[in-house]
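S2.1 Query sequence (Choice-of-anchor I domain-containing protein)
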Amino acid sequence: MPDAMAAYSVGGRTLLVTANEGDARDWPGFNEEVRVRAHCPQGLDPAVFPNAAALIMDSGLGRLLVTNTPNAGQTGRNAAGQCTELFSFGARSFSIWDASNLQQVYDSGDELEQRTRALPKVAFNASHNNNTLDARSPSKGPEPEAVVVAQFGNRHFAFIGLERVGGVMVYEVTNPAEARFVTYFNGTRNGVTGDRGPEGLTFIPAVQSPNGRPLLVVANEISGTTRILQINLGF
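Output structure tokens follow.
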């Protein structure tokens, strides 16, 4: 469930980069988000979840938010009412896809959370309006929200904004199947102060920049601030 997409071309092939935020339906009179412990009052099917008794606890999957409305025709439960399937929101990652056939060629997996688990000025998986440890762990984690791709010479870089924990991840995506982490910038966030909630990114190439240097503009939803970052190339 990407919230933003960007396209770039390498070797005559067009690639799509998606920021996999994920989002639940929350409308007047209908909200599909429910915690696993409430969604599965009869527990988890041990044939599907071998450690079902432990997983249903809050220390396992109990607090994870999942949908209470799975795909049409699916109940997600066995005859005893135990849950056999759980559908959560967002992949907590960014992905790269071949635009010609929509085959995934790369996904960052849990690396965004691995990279942000020991930040000096914000607790792990804190939200953008608090500094509470693990506040976002049951719900979409750092929440990849925005993405742009920039080209420097023959190299391509993806910039991914993390809405909740904040900051911008940078990956080189020249070889899409072997995207590699370059750096992470958390802006001026310090607990509940500074830049928080990056919602949109805009890249300004050097030829269009007022100072002749490539720039990245970060719009922060919660703090209501706009940060302009100068990109200093190291190659």
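Residues 4-23+92-230 form one domain. The first strand starts at residue 4 and ends at 10.
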